[in-house]
Amino acid sequence: MDYVVTPPRIMSAQVAGSAGRFPVHRIYCVGSNYPAHAQEMGRTGREPPVFFMKPADALLPVDSGEEGRLPYPSLTHDFHHEVELVVAIGEGGCDIARAEAQRHVFGYAVGLDMTRRDLQAAMKKRSGPWCIGKAFEHAAPLGPITAQAREVQLGTGQIALNVNGVERQRSAIAQMIWSVPDIIAHLSAAWTLVPGDLVFTGTPAGVAAVERGDLMEASVTGLEPLRVRVV
Ligand code: MN
Predict the structure, then answer these.
(1) Which of 16, 73, 78, 189 has its CA 20 to 30 A from that of 99?
(2) In this structure, which CATH number among 3.10.20.280, 3.30.230.10, 3.50.30.10, 3.90.850.10 belongs to the domain 12-230?
(3) What is the pLDDT of residues 71-90, one digit of tens each?
(4) b/e burial code for range 173-209 (CB count within 10 A of at least 16 → b)
């Protein structure tokens, strides 16, 4: 096949304990999935799930033991961190039942839904799409994926984010309003999931701004941590 311009490269994430990498198709995100964060964003937390997407090339994959470098993006003066549990889809489908959802999961990773909050807020005010606030280069830092076969115990786990060694966000994963099976059921009713899709499952309370030079350390119990410096 001859292409008239250079075709885009496949973005991929490291898989812990494997030489193979996980190729990324789409990046789905869930908004407001922890009650305290929904409230800090002005909602009750009882609304149906909100989904948005980031382009695959927004991925900033950070391999095990590495410190990712995240360029401070253009246009914003309020660049926010959102630490999130990320689900990697290994088996596609549509209209997936909650009871069947788990077998569509390849594994889990720690991610950051980086947000140009001022631009997102301006678009919300105009009832416009959030793309400019959410879907830009390097907006989706992601640590290595831990395959589900390694039996990650998410039910009792914690999700947390430190900035320069100071804790900003922490919650029990169990606080999620929509569980991973709930999310897969809702998402797959709206879109056909395919292997390679990633799902960012929402952030707990404590979102705030970072500046150039800040070091973000994100963690979920049982998964490889994610370290990213804003440059
Ligand atoms: Mn988010």
Answers:
(1) 16
(2) 3.90.850.10
(3) 999 999 999 999 999 999 99
(4) bebbbbbbbbbbbbbbeeeebeebbbbbbbbbbbbeb
